Each structure stands twice: as C-alpha cells, then as structure tokens.
Amino acid sequence: MRALCLLPVFVLLGSFCSLEAANILCLVSTAKHNNPGWSQSLFDALLAKGHTLLVISTAPNPEPKKQVDGLLYYHLHNEYDVMKKHFLLEEPREYKNMVTIKQLLVWYEVLLGSCRSVLFSDSMSSKLPELNAHLSTGFDLIITDVTQGIECLMDTVNGWRSKPVLGLSAGKLTPDLMALLQAENTINAARIPHYISQVPKNMGFWNRLHNHIMYFSESLIHLVIIRPVINNYMKTETGFPTLQLVLLNTHPTLDYVQNLPPGVIEVAGLHIKNKTSPLPRYIQEFTEKFRDGIVYINMPYIEYMNGQGLKAIDTMIQANPSCGFIWNVEQLAQLPAEKPNLLTLHVDQSLQQDILAMQYVKGFLNHADSFSLQEAIHNAVPVIVIPLKLEEFNNAQRVMERNLGVVLQAKELDQNSLSGALKRILDEERFTSALYQAQLKFRTRPQSPLELAVWHAEQLIAEPRLFKYFAQTEALAQHFLVANSLDVLTVPLIILLAAVVTVGNLVRVLYNARSKAKLSSEKEVPKKRKKSKKSSTNSTPMNTTLKLETSELFEDLNDEILEGEEQLLAVEEKPLEMKKED
C-alpha cells in the first residue's frame, strides 16, 4: 500500500526528468586559429546534465575514441590557415607585417575562406548524406559558433527558424554579433577601440578618426564583398541566423568595459578546467630543480621572426641558467638543441592549463591569443606577448595598459629583446601586483562561466521565447543617419552655419564701410577762401565764424544795456510825478 501511495510521486518525478532532457544540435565550423575546441567544456557539461547532443565540429581533436551515451559526434575538416595565407612567407622564411585597415579585409576574408574550406571539404561531402538524415530530426536547441559572425553549417538544418538558437563567440563583441542578435549597437567608436586594432583606451583625435574608419568600413565590406560572395555558397538568411542569446568570450580584466546588450552574456574562461590534473612525474621532477621557477613557452611561428626568433629564445635560455624552460614545440619544424634547463614537449590545451597552474611558473611567452591570456590571468602568471594577427594586437594593447606583462613587436625581435623582457617580468613587482588583482576579479563571480553558460542554455530549452524581447528590430530598421542622430544634429549645424554667415556678412559690411570712408577722406581737397574786399592786403586772415559770434555777442550786450537804462529812468520818473501831484 505504501508503494502505491508513492507511485504518483515517482510518476511526477519521472515527468520532470523527461522534460529536463533535451535534444541539442551543436554546430562548430570555425578554423583552427579560432580554437573551436573551446566550446567542448560546455558540451560535456550539457551531456552530464542528461541532454542528448549531436555535435558537428571542426575542432582539431578527433572524435571520442569510445562511445559516449547521449553523444553523436561528427568531425569535419577546416584546413583554412590565415597565418600561412596572409602573414607568413616561406621563401624567404619570414613574418609579414600588415597595416590595420588591411587586416580588417583579412578578417572578413577569413570568414569566406573558412566557410569555403568546410563546405567543400572531402569530409563534408562524404558525411553529408548521413548528416542530412540526423539533421532532419527535431531539436530543442541549436548551439552554433559565430566567432566570425556567420555559421556555415546552418544551411543544412531544416526548420531552424522555429527553434531557439544560442550563439558562441570566441572573439570580442562586434557589430556583426549585434546584427545577429537584432540588438541595438552599443559600441561607441569614440570610446571603444576596434577589436582588431592597437588603438589605446584613451584615444586622441587621430585615434578616434582611425577607429571610426575601421567601424564604418565594416558596413561597406559587408555590402560590397561578403553578401554577394556568401550568396554563392548558401542562403544569406541561413548564413546569418537570428540568435536569441550570445555567450561571449570576454571579461573586463582583459577586455575593455562596455555596455552589453541584454542578449550578450560574458563567459570568459569557459574552457578553463575547474580542477587541474597532476603533471607527469618527469615534468614535476624537472620543475623542482630550479630556484627561480619555470618559464613556459608557447610561441608558434617563432622561426619566422626576422630570422632572430629561435636565436632569441636560445639566448634567453642560456642567460638564465637558474630558470627552467618548458617549450611547446608542437609546431616547430626543427627541435632546438638540448640544454640542462630546457624541456621540450608537445602540449595540448589541457596540459597547458596544468602547467600554468603550477606555483613554480613565473612567466609565459605566447602570441596574445585570448585563451592563453585568460589562463595566465586565472593563474596570475606574467606574460611576454608577440602579437601576430587580427585581434591579438588588441589583446596585446590591453596587456600593456594593465601591466599584465611585456609586449614585443615581431619586427623588433632580436637576440636580446626576449632576455630583457623576461628580466622585467621576473624582477618588477608591478606585474605581479597587477596580476593578483586581475586574478581576484577574474575568479570572483556569482557563477562560474560554465555554470552560467549551462543555465542560459537550459533556460532557452525550457522557455524559447524568454529572451524574445531582447531584440530591437526597430533599431536595425532605422536608416544610418537616423540611428546615429545625424539628422537631428543637422538642425544645430544649420543654425550655427546661419550665425556664422550672418556675422561674416556684418564684418564684411563694416570693413567695406570703413574702407570707403578712409578712401573718401584721402581724396577730399580743402577749398580756397575768398578774400574780403574791405580787408587790406597786409591784414591777417580772420576767422569768419569767430567774427559772427563776436558781433552777435556785442548786439546782445547792447540790448541788455538799453533795457537796464530804461528801467532806471522809469524808477527816477516815478518820484517826480508823485511830487507834482502833491
């Protein structure tokens, strides 16, 4: 009887459990340099929550070796390499510097080249029939990587418009992401440096001018280049899907503080493990030998740096025998010579996090990618960065401004520059102090990035229209002049111009009048006075005006005198008359 009484409770719990489990489609088509594997931690967490996942990914790691319950994984190849195509020369072997405006064109060329690579790859053509069969089933949520502002695989998904779409971006907040969210563009070009520029946070006039050119050029590139080319690969509306939310790989400790639309959630550090794994014993024993600690090197393409990169690292290692160096040589064509204080390894992302988490690590050499810098901040490790491409220059500028490390430019690299930079991060306390503060801010959050990402994903599954009103389609529909208040600013501008014209005309009239008066006074000739007939030839000239005034004065005096005399006579005559009467 007791079991029968508890039956409704079991049924209710079972119904809740069935509602929690969802069918999720995960699309990741970005190239290797965008680190498509950073979203794997989110997928693993959703699997652990009991959801079923279909993952189509270009992550460099192959599909799982063993079958995982609830996971169906398809690996696609994306061979696009932005470094080899735009920044590296094989003959001679060197790195090519590129101005920022040209890098903006490269940023969008990456978008097209990456899509072309994955859509026309052999793995895509061979797996497409099987993928179409799986993609025809219904999904409760679609998670897509929109780091470059586009998702190439969305065109293969039928009926995606009726499903909530959660975007992942490994980069920074861009106008393209705002457009996908249908949100108001909160990026102010007068205050927020462009995401691939080296513009400082405190911008002067020329910095702001450069920054505005970068932002305004994007709309032109989209209109003239991107959309016409994309139409040859897929439908435009599927290449630029409407998103309900975006999980963004940024945090104020590394990125600039800005106003985020309500549909943008910052989850920087999403890829960082909660617990690090113990290092292999031979690595642990190596780290314990050196009293000045360990320096970790992950500097791809270092051999292209003016022919000085490998020599610079070799000089740095020899100049610091009391420091141990762990060098990730995965992408080196030739291994460096053996040294007692050098350990060379092939390091993946997981092992790198385990190495940086060691208390012995005192420095980290990298090329300023966001993921490595976040791991350095998470573990309070000073960095030496050599930015190579696109958003790495922006990251390097933030590192320099916030005293998180030392920035070197590829063209400035020589045999002594790395040694000098290492000495600075080991000796100067300001780097350590700044990093401890940044670590505290980076780690202190109401929720971990992973918990925040999972919560929002499940909220979209439970209530797809929960974030519907975050979009502002009316803002997107506004004309450029209206959206930027240029039409309103024309009114005071016209008034100002009218005032300037009026004042200018007044000044011109006054100037002309003064000039004419001056000219007339210079041309006027004094007239000759006629000589008086009565005056003798020897007499001096007389002032006519003075003469007239003098004569009038005398006449007035005579009249007054006559009046006075008449009054006296009248007074004298009165007594005489009185006497006669008597």
From TrEMBL:
Task: Drop me one GO molecular function for this one.
Answer: UDP-glycosyltransferase activity
Source taxonomy: Eukaryota, Metazoa, Ecdysozoa, Arthropoda, Hexapoda
The name of this protein is: Uncharacterized protein
**Keywords assigned:** Glycosyltransferase, Membrane, Signal, Transferase, Transmembrane, Transmembrane helix
Q: Which SUPFAM superfamilies match?
A: UDP-Glycosyltransferase/glycogen phosphorylase (SSF53756)
The record's InterPro entries line, in alphabetical order, gives: UDP-glycosyltransferase, UDP_glucos_trans
Similarity comment text for this entry: Belongs to the UDP-glycosyltransferase family.
- The record lists the membrane-crossing segments as 489-511
Q: Where is the signal peptide?
A: 1-21
Q: What Pfam families does this protein map onto?
A: UDPGT
Q: Which residue ranges have biased composition labelled Polar residues? A: 537-548
Would I find Glycosyltransferase among this entry's keywords?
yes
Annotated stretches, region: Disordered: 521-549
Q: Which organism is it from?
A: Drosophila yakuba
Transferase among the record's keywords? Answer: yes
